[in-house]
């Protein structure tokens, strides 16, 4: 007699049920504790920053060391990692039996936090391309309302309008084709759902913007201006677009009507 599935396995199967097309859902591997949709290793054409995100050591110390240092560099003006999670949850209006997608989830710190705010059949799905990050997420971030998927965020494997909330914190300045990722996040957002993004901000002064852009470019990190993300959300038909600038970091959230 097979043992009964635990809460983490049940959450993983709820995440599997959301995958499309059907062939992909059926073929997804789970031997590592997450749904693996890819056969390759690591990020496509990785930059120095992306190499770090695909590093086993960085994945292991991300929350205690790497993330605080990176937050200080990004100039979040005293907003701690816990404060960022709380802000994201508030901007997304989390609770109940929602379906939540955490894009570029890393080691699952936000995904786990989101899942703890859900109930019943609610599920927070952490989505990332890095095996090492997801290995860490499975070790520390599984639960009755949190599960993980390995895939390419430029082609999210979900139907239109699947999720009640979509989050992407500290990743858009790293990923290839970031505006394609933004389009995909908006596509899978359900009517009435909310989206929240935290990314880089390049300042308005031309000289400072150039200096920040040069330093960021060396590492393969993009710097965004004030208008790009709010304009993209508005052009996609989202409403209640709000933006907060903190140092060289910006938080942008919006709602699908």
UniProtKB/TrEMBL annotation:
Q: Which residues form a coiled coil?
A: none
Q: Which GO terms describe its molecular function?
A: S-adenosylmethionine-dependent methyltransferase activity
Is Methyltransferase set as a keyword in this record?
yes
Query: What superkingdom heads the lineage?
Result: Bacteria
Query: Any idea where the Methyltransferase type domain is?
Result: 101-196
Q: Name one GO biological process term.
A: methylation
**Pfam families xref list:** Methyltransf_11
Q: Which key words tag this protein in UniProt?
A: Methyltransferase, Transferase
Do you know which PANTHER family this protein is assigned to?
METHYLTRANSFERASE, OS06G0646000 PROTEIN
Protein name per UniProt: Methyltransferase domain-containing protein
């Amino acid at each position: 007699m097979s043992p009964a599935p635990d809460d983490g396995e049940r959450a993983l199967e709820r995440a599997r049920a959301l995958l499309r097309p059907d062939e992909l859902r059926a073929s997804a591997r789970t031997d590592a504790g997450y749904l693996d949709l890819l056969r390759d290793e690591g990020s496509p054409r990785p930059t120095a920053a992306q190499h770090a995100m695909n590093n086993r050591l960085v994945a292991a110390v991300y929350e205690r060391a790497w993330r605080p240092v990176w937050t200080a560099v990004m100039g979040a003006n005293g907003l701690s990692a816990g404060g960022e999670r709380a802000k994201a949850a508030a901007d997304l209006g989390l609770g109940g039996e929602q379906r939540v997608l955490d894009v570029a989830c890393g080691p699952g710190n936000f995904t786990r936090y989101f899942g703890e705010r859900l109930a019943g059949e609610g599920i927070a799905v952490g989505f990332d391309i890095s095996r090492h990050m997801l290995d860490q997420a499975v070790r520390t971030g599984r639960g009755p309302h949190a599960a993980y998927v390995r895939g390419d965020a430029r082609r999210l494997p979900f139907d239109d309008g699947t999720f009640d909330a979509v989050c992407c914190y500290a990743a858009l300045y790293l990923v290839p084709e970031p505006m394609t990722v933004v389009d995909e996040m908006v596509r899978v957002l359900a009517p009435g759902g909310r989206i929240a993004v935290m990314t880089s901000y390049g300042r308005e002064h031309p000289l400072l913007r150039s200096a920040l852009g040069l330093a960021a470019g060396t590492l393969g990190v993009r710097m965004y201006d004030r208008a790009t993300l709010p304009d993209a959300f508005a052009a996609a038909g989202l409403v209640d677009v709000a933006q907060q600038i903190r140092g060289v970091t910006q938080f942008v959230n919006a709602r699908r009507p």
